[in-house]
Design a protein that fits this description.
Strand order of the largest sheet of chain A: 6-7-8-3-9-10
Radius of gyration of chain B: 29 Å
Distance between the termini of chain B: 25 Å
Helix content of chain B: 55-70%
Radius of gyration of chain A: 23 Å
Number of domains of chain B: 2
CATH superfamily of the largest domain in chain A: P-loop containing nucleotide triphosphate hydrolases
Structural class of chain A: alpha/beta
Number of helices of chain B: 15
Number of strands of chain B: 4
Helix content of chain A: 25-40%
Largest interface: A-B, 32 and 26 residues
Oligomer: heterodimer
Distance between the termini of chain A: 44 Å
CATH class of the largest domain in chain A: Alpha Beta
C-alpha cells in the first residue's frame, strides 16, 4: 500500500512528487503533501512560485508531468472528471459573467452542477444571503464591488456543497473588511467539515490556516502548522527593536557584526541575528551611544513573514554557488 | 450528456446575446443589410445601354433600322451626333457605352440589294456589358436584314416568303433572365455561411479571454453539453435570419419560390448546424476572439462568395479550381437553394447535395467536440 492510498478516510488531498514542466521550465518541482479532511490548508508563496499551477493540477484542469495524487479519493491523473463533481474551485481571476445578474449567475451554476430542483431555491437564497446581496439580486455582476464579487464567486463554486474547495488567491485586490468577512466564511465552511485549500501571499491570512505549505520557485520548502513553522523552522533568532527614527537606526544596526537582516516591521524593526543575548547587548549599546531613545530591544517569536523570508534567503544562498558554477 | 446542463448553457448564452447589442446587430441587422445591398446593387442584367447614333444617311430606311434599337429594352438612344469627334467624347465621358454609325450611302446600298456596312462601337472597359451589347445589337441587325430580304423577295416574286427556320429560344426557370432571381437565393447561402461562422467564432474564445472558461472546465459540465448549449441560441438567430431572407425574397425582390418551403428551411437548418459548428471549431482552436473572427471571415467569405457558384458558374472555372469548389459547403447549399427557389425541385434530384451538406454538418460537430478539451495547456 503506497502513501497515496493510505488514510483516504482521513485525507482530502494527497500528492506525491507532483511535477509540472512547461517546456524546460519546471513550474512545480516534485511537491509532496497531505491535506486532512476538514482542515484549512494554506499554500503560501510569492507570485510565480507555482501555487496556481499546483491547484490546477489538483482540480483536474492541468495534467501533471509526473507524480501521483488523489483529491477527495479520486486519482488526479485518471479521474479528473470525478474530482470535478466533488470539489469547488474559485480561480484567481473573477470568473463569473459580468453581463449577467447575480441571480442569473447563480442559476447558471446551479444548472451546471445539476442542483436538485427541491434544493435549488434554498441554495440560491443561501448564496445571496452569504454574499450579502439581498438588495442586488437583479444587478449586473459588473457593478458589484470586489468583496461582493468574491463572495458571489465563492457561493457559485460551492452551490453543490462539495467536500473539498480550492481557492486561488481569493482575497487579492479586496479591501481589508471584505477580506475579514471572507475568512469568516472560510471558517464557517471548515466548521461544517469542508476541507479548504487556499493559496495566498498575505502573511496575516496564513496565520488563519490550520496548516501551511511554503512554496518557492516550484518547490515546497516547508510545511506545518503556523506554530511549528515559527518555533522550529527558523535557525536564527529574531529581535524586536522599538526606537526613535527606526529608518535611520536600520542603517546603524546593519553595521553590527552578527546581524543578518534588518527590516521595518510595524512601528519598529525586526532584526534577524545569530544569537539573541549578544545581539541585544550590542544593539542597545550602539543605539544609546548614537543618541536614539530606545524603548525596547528583545527576542521575540518570529512572525511568519520572518520565517518565510529567512527560509527563502537560506534557499537562495544554497542555490547561488550552483548558479555561479553553471555560468 | 445531460440536457439539463445544455439548457443552462443555452440560457446563459441567450442572455449574453440579448445583453450585447453588437452581437444582436451582427446576427440580425448585418444579414439584412447585406441582403439589401447585394440584392439591389449586384445586378448582372444589361439593359438600357446608353447609345449615341451618327446617322449619316438620314433616310426612311435608316430610321426603320434605328427603330429596332429604339424599341429594344436593351438600348437607350441618348443622343444623335455628327462626327467621330462627338462619338469619341460621348464614350470617353461615359455618357454612352455604345455608338452606332450608319454610312451616308446606307439607303442606296439597301435599295440596290447590296450589303450595307453598319458600325457598332462599344466601350470595352466594361467587357461583360460590351459583350452583351454586341449580342443584342447583332440580333437587331439580323432581324432587320431578314425583313429587308423578305420584302425584296415578295416584291420580286409577288408572294409571301416564310423563313426556313423558326427559332424560338426559351429560358426555363428564369424566363425574364433576371439576375436577382438567381442572385438572391445564392446570396442567402453566402450570408448565412459568413454570419453563422462569425457569430459562434467568438463564443468559446471569449470565455478563454475573460477567464470564465477556467471556472467552467473545473465543473462537471461536458464538452458536448457546452458546445450544444452554445449552438442552440445562435441556431435560433440563424433560422430567424433565414426567415427574414425568405420574406425579403418574396416581398421585396419578388423572387419566385417554386419549391417546398419546409424543404428550404430543413436544408437551411442542416447547413446552419455545419456553419455554426465551424465557427465553434475555429473558436476552440484559436482561443482568441480577434484571430477567430478573422479566420472565420477568411474561411467563409471569399470561398463562399467566389467559388460556391453563387456569382460565377463553376463549370466555367479552370479544373483545379473546380475541384476546390467541391469542398466548399456553400456550393451545395447554393445549388440546393437555386434548385428549390427557381426549379421547384426537391430531394429526388438533389439528394447528393443534401447528403453532402449533412455530412458537412456531422463532420463539423464531431471536430468541434473533439478539439474542445477541458484542460489547460
Amino acid at each position: 500500500m503506497n502513501s497515496v492510498e493510505k488514510n483516504s478516510n482521513e485525507t482530502a488531498v494527497v500528492v506525491q512528487d507532483l511535477e509540472r514542466r512547461f517546456g524546460s521550465f519546471i513550474a512545480v518541482n516534485r511537491v509532496s503533501f497531505e491535506v486532512k479532511k476538514g482542515e484549512i490548508f494554506g499554500f503560501l508563496g510569492p507570485n510565480g512560485a507555482g501555487k496556481s499551477t499546483t491547484i490546477r493540477m489538483l482540480i483536474g484542469v492541468l495534467a501533471p508531468t509526473d507524480g501521483v495524487g488523489t483529491v477527495a479519493g479520486f486519482d488526479i491523473r485518471t479521474q479528473a472528471e470525478e474530482i470535478k463533481k466533488h470539489i469547488g474551485y474559485m480561480s484567481q481571476k473573477f470568473s463569473l459573467y459580468d453581463d449577467l445578474t447575480v441571480s442569473e449567475n447563480i442559476d447558471f451554476y446551479s444548472g451546471i452542477y445539476r442542483i436538485d430542483p427541491a434544493r435549488k431555491k434554498a441554495r440560491k437564497e443561501w448564496v445571496i444571503e452569504m454574499a450579502g446581496l439581498e438588495h442586488h439580486r437583479h444587478s449586473r455582476t459588473a457593478i458589484l464591488s470586489g468583496g461582493w464579487k468574491q463572495r458571489l464567486a465563492l457561493g457559485c463554486a460551492i452551490l453543490h456543497e462539495p467536500p473539498v474547495i480550492f481557492l486561488d488567491e481569493p482575497t487579492s485586490g479586496v479591501d481589508p473588511v471584505s477580506r475579514r468577512q471572507f475568512w469568516d466564511l472560510i471558517y464557517e465552511l471548515s466548521g461544517k467539515g469542508v476541507t479548504v485549500f487556499v493559496t495566498t501571499h498575505y502573511m496575516d491570512e496564513a496565520e488563519y490556516c490550520d496548516r501551511l505549505g511554503l512554496i518557492y520557485r516550484g518547490e515546497l520548502i516547508a510545511a506545518g502548522t503556523p506554530e511549528t513553522l515559527k518555533t522550529e523552522l527558523m535557525q536564527e533568532d529574531v529581535l524586536e527593536v522599538i526606537c526613535e527614527r527606526p529608518q535611520d537606526a536600520m542603517g546603524e544596526i546593519e553595521q553590527i557584526e552578527g546581524i543578518k537582516e534588518v527590516a521595518l516591521f510595524g512601528k519598529g524593526l525586526h532584526v534577524v541575528v545569530e544569537e539573541t543575548e549578544r545581539a541585544v547587548a550590542a544593539i542597545s549599546d550602539l543605539l544609546q551611544r548614537r543618541g536614539y531613545a530606545v524603548t525596547r530591544v528583545e527576542g521575540i517569536v518570529p512572525s511568519l513573514e520572518d520565517v518565510f523570508v529567512s527560509l527563502i534567503e537560506a534557499r537562495d544562498r544554497a542555490e547561488q554557488p550552483q548558479q555561479e558554477v553553471k555560468r | 450528456m445531460k440536457l439539463y446542463r445544455t439548457w443552462a448553457v443555452a440560457r446563459k448564452e441567450y442572455l449574453h446575446i440579448i445583453r450585447d447589442p453588437r452581437s444582436l446587430g451582427m446576427g440580425i441587422v448585418i444579414p439584412v443589410i447585406l441582403l439589401l445591398l447585394f440584392g439591389y446593387a449586384l445586378s448582372l442584367d444589361v439593359d438600357n445601354v446608353p447609345t449615341v447614333v451618327w446617322d449619316q444617311s438620314e433616310s426612311q430606311v435608316s430610321r426603320d433600322f434605328l427603330s429596332g434599337f429604339q424599341g429594344s429594352p436593351y438600348f437607350s438612344i441618348v443622343k444623335f451626333v455628327h462626327g467621330y469627334g462627338e462619338v469619341d467624347r460621348a464614350i470617353n465621358s461615359a455618357e454612352a457605352l455604345a455608338a452606332l454609325i450608319i454610312p451616308r450611302d446606307f439607303a442606296q446600298l439597301i435599295e440596290a440589294g447590296r450589303a450595307a456596312p453598319v458600325q457598332l462601337i462599344v466601350d470595352g472597359s466594361d467587357s461583360d456589358t460590351a459583350d452583351t451589347a454586341i449580342g443584342y445589337a447583332e440580333t437587331v441587325a439580323q432581324s432587320f436584314s431578314q425583313q429587308v430580304a423578305v420584302r425584296e423577295v415578295q416584291r420580286k416574286t409577288g408572294r409571301t416568303l416564310d423563313l426556313p427556320l423558326d427559332y424560338r429560344p426559351r429560358t426555363w426557370y428564369n424566363e425574364d433572365m433576371e439576375s436577382k432571381n438567381y442572385i438572391v437565393p445564392g446570396l442567402i447561402a453566402v450570408i448565412m455561411m459568413v454570419i453563422a461562422a462569425l457569430l459562434t467564432s467568438l463564443t468559446i474564445a471569449r470565455e478563454w479571454e475573460r477567464g470564465t472558461m477556467e471556472q467552467l472546465i473545473s465543473t462537471p459540465v461536458k464538452g458536448p453539453e457546452l458546445i450544444l448549449g452554445k449552438l442552440f441560441p445562435y441556431f435560433t438567430i440563424g433560422m430567424f435570419d433565414v426567415l427574414l431572407a425568405v420574406l425579403m425574397g418574396e416581398f421585396l425582390f419578388d423572387v419566385p419560390l417554386r419549391g417546398s418551403v419546409p424543404l428550404l428551411f430543413g436544408m437551411a437548418a442542416v447547413f446552419l448546424v455545419g456553419a455554426l459548428s465551424l465557427g465553434i471549431l475555429i473558436s476552440v482552436v484559436t482561443k482568441s476572439q480577434l484571430l477567430a473572427s478573422q479566420l472565420a471571415m477568411v474561411l467563409t467569405f471569399l470561398p463562399s462568395f467566389l467559388l460556391s457558384g453563387f456569382m460565377y458558374a463553376i463549370s466555367n472555372m479552370p479544373q483545379p479550381i473546380q475541384i476546390i469548389t467541391y469542398v466548399i459547403p456553400a456550393t451545395y447549399f447554393v445549388s440546393l437553394l437555386k434548385g428549390i427557389y427557381l426549379k421547384g425541385v426537391g430531394l429526388e434530384v438533389m439528394a447528393i447535395q443534401a447528403g453532402l451538406l449533412g455530412a458537412f454538418g456531422v463532420v463539423m460537430v464531431i471536430l468541434a467536440n473533439d478539439k474542445f478539451k477541458k484542460k489547460l495547456e
